[in-house]
Amino acid sequence: MANSNNRKLVPEAMTALDKFKYEVASEVGVNLKDGYNGDISAKDAGKIGGQMVKKMIEQAERNMK
What we know:
By secondary structure, the protein is mainly α. It has helices at 14-28, 42-64. The longest helix has 23 residues, at 42-64.
């Protein structure tokens, strides 16, 4: 059963977030293919997610100045 907490607050941002994910994956050296990427390691997925969060926090901090 789907968790209701997994819904996007801004559904229109899906495309931009997807593009961002591929850009970050490229930066950290992880090759993502279009579509399903469930075969990548947890370590590589963590690299991508961690770098995405780091960049989003940096952007938020810049916007606070």
